[in-house]
Amino acid sequence: MRPQLFSKYLAASLAGLAALSATALEFRSVAEHGAVFYDAPSLQAKKLFVASKGLPVEVLVDNKDWLRVRDQSGTLAWVAKATLNAKRNVVIAVNRAEVHGAADLKSPLLFVADKNVIFELLETGKTGWVKVRHRDGAQGYIRIEEVWGL
Fold first, then answer.
1. CB count in 10 Å sphere of residue 143
2. DSSP state for residue 10 in the 8-state scheme
């Protein structure tokens, strides 16, 4: 490859990478119990698993009526776009996460949540904490490194 052509190719590649890295992550949540995840964007494809309502997933590819997504475990699958919603949830990614009354380790400990418990995301802050609400109504603050879905 000629040096001039290589330089143009390299510049275009770097610009493309910069655009990709600047793209914000998109997360959605399963809208109803029993959402089926497939190995290809088709109802005739192999069924991989069924997910419960609220499970957060990261959107990787938008293919009209289908989305290629990744879950907390890193599993990749296709799901019908209509089975997800824009509601933001997070899932506990550590064995046990402490839920505090404020975004501070010295604040009162309200309760402890086990791994894979799903919470509605209420607020994200710059302090390293997120405000969450459990389906039973209990809410509080969890450190961001203890959840997945942000």
1. 17
2. H
